[in-house]
Amino acid sequence: MKILIILLACLMISVFYKEESRLLPNGIDIKEALVNLKSQKKFVENLSELYPGAPDEQTRVEAESIINNVIDELLASKDNRLSEQEFWNVLKFAAIKLESMDSEEMDQGLYYMEKIMDIYGIESSAGKLNEWRYGLDPSSH
Q: Can you give the pTM of this predicted structure?
């Protein structure tokens, strides 16, 4: 029985470790898509997303800088190796910076994070974006 418990514990630890160390694809196609996204002017009026644009140019530039810094950090990943945990840490740091801005800029910042997730082929944030935006994951309640 003790051996079974030890084996089960080892299995759980290895699954947790795999999740923490899972590497994301980070090839040339991803880097080109990130560079393309970085080159785009951000936080301008986007009627398809019901975003009126930043209230002024200073706010727009500040918000754009936060997202472009995310892209720069992802592009600078060591040896083209980027773990999923590192990816989420970079995005979370940006979300913390965006919290000090108007809710429209926070929402638009999360929209750009979703675009970055799409570039990496990440289909779901597992509630992280909702947690950063609203302080909780509504699907868990």
A: 0.81
